[in-house]
């Protein structure tokens, strides 16, 4: 499947999509959160979407995970379902409306994880072939040990699938997690060039990384085009009287 | 080479997944038979399957039945989502594929391994035909269902849309929202929409038939004669190695 994915810019979407990828514990979620705060403060139309968060599919996924019902194939399919739901119902309309969409994990997470679980790469890529390529993909690369320690220190109980226990790599969840994460990292690195990842050094401090993140984003995207033109529409006068508490801060957006 | 070895050899040759299949499955271990019955609501699918199960079990064959939306993993969620009609087409397609794969791995493959006859009340072809009518890319669908095992036989119970509409109304006094393709906006009139949708489904099935070569059974006929024809075909299948 040598077909190259097109970015949203190349597809003439008014919006732009920025994705972060990396191992658990690489600090990518912190970075994209701080990016979101900045863009919001700049008065930019921004939307944040997280991997595996579609309300509709969630109950099936969590049941499957809790009862350990998932195989590599169904694990892959149920996450693709989750992604498709968010993609078609949220991401696409927002991108059509000129939003900057921030994704904590994108299809590359599936490419790395599902292939590590033994699904054929062509099949997995085929499943996600409806998705366009992000305009920016930042890969947060920390030393494997650093990522592992961040996770293992803070959250000592590892979940079954998170630790890759379904792969029977080791009976010890911690050992299994280490091997699993190592293999995922290999998969990520192998696709880094193909999908034009910007590799960020995640061993640096949070603040230093964020400076680089904001610099990269403002260089690659002409942010002023994505500002809200006007404050959010006010509610009609009849409801305004009762709802005074709900309309305080909107004027701030207008000042930017 | 002993007779048994020759026999298992021939089984091995016949069995295949449409694409890469499910990782780690030993095809030669799947000694049972997989029979899929396709057709619209009102084509007599369920009636025929019930009759076949009866006949097969009386003749000493163990059977298992599978069907759409019956997986323990997602059937409930899929039902809920469909009721609200809020899923977009790719999502619905993948949700159904998840439901299918779960049953394939947890019901179909184990039953075939145990030598059962598995009767599938609809298989991937209905799912593909529905998606094709909704404009999904055929190549994408083919890749998606590359996980599926090729059945030993597929019977498509073909009924004219005009006859289908009569049967559905006689049975339920109403037409099903999805079986009428109401989500497609073909017509505001349900009766009209049903006919248009079922006609489109038939042409999708015809297209798929060219690739997947299933047997088309004229199901406009009385129940008994259809059963007779199906039994005859299955008998041949069971006699083969």
Structure description:
The complex is a heterodimer of chains A (256) and B (241). Helices cover 49% and strands 11% of the residues of chain A. Chain A has ten helices and five strands. Chain A has a five-stranded parallel β-sheet with strand order 2-3-1-4-5, sandwiched between helices. In chain A, α4 (107-116) packs across α7 (173-191). The N and C termini of chain A lie far apart (45 Å). With 241 residues, chain B is of the alpha/beta class. Chain B has a single domain (26-239), classed as Rossmann fold (3-Layer(aba) Sandwich), CATH 3.40.50. Chain B has nine helices and five strands; from the N terminus they run αβαβααβααβααβα. In chain B, α2 (45-58) packs across α9 and α5 crosses α8. Classes of the chains: A alpha/beta (256), B alpha/beta (241). The A-B interface holds A 56-57, 59-60, 63-64, 69-74, 77-78, 80-81, 84-85, 87-89, 118-120, 122-123, 126-127, 129-130 and B 19-20, 22-24, 72-74, 76-78, 80-81, 86-91, 93-95, 97-98, 101-102, 105-106, 140, 143-144, 146-147.
Brief digest:
The complex is a heterodimer of chains A (256) and B (241). With 256 residues, chain A is α/β, with parallel strands linked by helices.
Notable characteristics:
heterodimer; A: 256 residues; alpha/beta; Rossmann fold; 5-stranded parallel sheet; 5 strands; 11% strand; globular; disordered C terminus; B: 241 residues; 9 helices
Helix content of chain A: 40-55%
The mean pLDDT of chain A is 88
Overall helicity of chain B: 40-55%
Number of domains of chain B: 1
Mean pLDDT of chain B: 91
Helix/strand-derived class of chain A? alpha/beta
Q: Which structural class should the secondary elements of chain B be placed in?
A: alpha/beta
Label the overall shape of chain A.
Answer: globular
- Provide the CATH top-level class of chain A: Alpha Beta
| β-strand amount of chain B | 5-15%
* Biggest chain pair interface: A-B, 30 and 33 residues
Q: How many distinct beta strands of chain B?
A: 5
Instruction: Strand order, main sheet of chain B: write it out.
Output: 2-3-1-4-5
**CATH H-level superfamily of chain B:** P-loop containing nucleotide triphosphate hydrolases
What's the end-to-end separation of chain B, in Å? 16 Å
Helix/strand order of chain A = EHEHHEHHEHHEHHH
Show unreliable segments of chain A.
240-256
Q: What would you report as the Rg of chain A, rounded to the nearest angstrom?
A: 20 Å
How many H/I helical runs of chain B? 9
Tell me about the biggest sheet of chain A?
A: 5 strands, parallel
């Amino acid at each position: 499947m040598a077909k190259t994915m097109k970015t949203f810019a190349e597809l003439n979407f008014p919006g732009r999509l920025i994705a972060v990828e990396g191992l658990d514990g690489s600090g990518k979620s912190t970075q994209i959160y701080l990016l979101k705060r900045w863009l919001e403060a700049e008065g930019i139309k921004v939307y944040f979407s997280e991997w595996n968060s579609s309300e509709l599919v969630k109950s099936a996924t969590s049941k499957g995970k809790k009862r350990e019902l998932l195989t590599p194939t169904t694990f892959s399919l149920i996450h693709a379902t989750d992604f498709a739901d968010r993609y078609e119902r949220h991401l696409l309309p927002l991108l059509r409306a000129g939003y900057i969409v921030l994704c904590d994990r994108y299809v590359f997470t599936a490419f790395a994880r599902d292939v590590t679980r033994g699904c054929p790469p062509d099949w997995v890529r085929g499943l996600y072939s409806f998705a366009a390529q992000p305009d920016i993909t930042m890969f947060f690369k920390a030393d494997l040990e650093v990522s592992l320690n961040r996770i293992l220190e803070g959250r000592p109980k590892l979940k079954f699938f998170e630790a890759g226990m379904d792969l029977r790599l080791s009976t010890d969840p911690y050992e299994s997690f280490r091997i699993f994460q190592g293999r995922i990292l290999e998969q990520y690195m192998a696709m880094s060039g193909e999908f034009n990842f910007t590799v960020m050094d995640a061993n640096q401090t949070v603040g230093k990384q964020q400076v680089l993140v904001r610099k990269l984003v403002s260089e690659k995207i002409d942010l002023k085009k994505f500002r809200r033109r006007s404050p959010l529409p006010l509610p009609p006068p009849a409801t305004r009287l009762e709802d005074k508490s709900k309309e305080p801060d909107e004027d701030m957006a207008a000042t930017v | 080479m002993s007779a048994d070895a020759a026999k298992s050899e021939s089984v091995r040759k016949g069995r295949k997944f449409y694409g890469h299949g499910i990782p780690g499955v030993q095809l030669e271990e799947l000694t049972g038979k997989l029979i899929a019955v396709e057709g619209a609501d009102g084509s007599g699918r369920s009636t025929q399957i019930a009759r076949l199960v009866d006949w097969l079990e009386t003749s000493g064959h163990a059977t298992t039945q599978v069907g759409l939306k019956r997986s323990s993993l997602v059937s409930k969620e899929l039902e809920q989502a469909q009721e609200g009609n809020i899923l977009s087409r790719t999502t619905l397609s993948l949700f159904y594929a998840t439901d299918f794969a779960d049953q394939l791995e947890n019901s179909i493959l184990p039953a075939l391994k145990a030598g059962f006859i598995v009767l599938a009340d609809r298989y991937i072809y209905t799912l593909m035909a529905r998606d094709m009518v909704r404009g999904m890319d055929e190549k994408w669908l083919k890749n998606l269902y590359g996980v599926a095992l090729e059945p030993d036989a597929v019977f498509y119970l073909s009924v004219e849309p005009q006859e289908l509409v009569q049967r559905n109304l006689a049975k339920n006094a109403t037409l099903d929202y999805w079986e009428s393709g109401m989500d497609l906006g073909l017509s505001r009139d349900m009766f009209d929409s049903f006919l248009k949708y079922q006609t489109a489904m038939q042409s999708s099935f015809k297209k798929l038939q060219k690739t997947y070569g299933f047997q088309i059974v004229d199901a406009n006929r009385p129940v008994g004669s259809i059963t007779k024809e199906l039994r005859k075909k299955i008998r041949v299948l069971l006699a083969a190695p």
